[in-house]
Design a protein that fits this description.
71 residues, 4 helices, 79% helix
Length: 71
């Protein structure tokens, strides 16, 4: 199911590449699949676009950092 999620998120990004929340969830999915390098690249986009994140989503950035460090 994670592979399907990645495919869907990639389609969403193609439609709206400046949507940081999609990039964030793509990064989570990629980490779960063990695709660390791709997850880091997706996360770089989150950082670049973080000014567009809602406050509630900002807390997920620290969760991501923990998950990437543990991967």
């Amino acid at each position: 199911r994670k592979e399907e999620a990645v495919t869907i998120r990639e389609k969403q990004i193609a439609l709206d590449p400046k949507h940081p929340k999609i990039w964030l969830y793509l990064a989570f999915d990629l980490i779960d699949l063990g695709r660390k390098a791709e997850a880091l690249a997706a996360f770089e986009n989150v950082i670049r676009l973080q000014r567009y994140l809602a406050d509630e989503d900002m807390s997920k950035l620290s969760e991501y950092r923990q998950r990437i460090n543990n991967a």
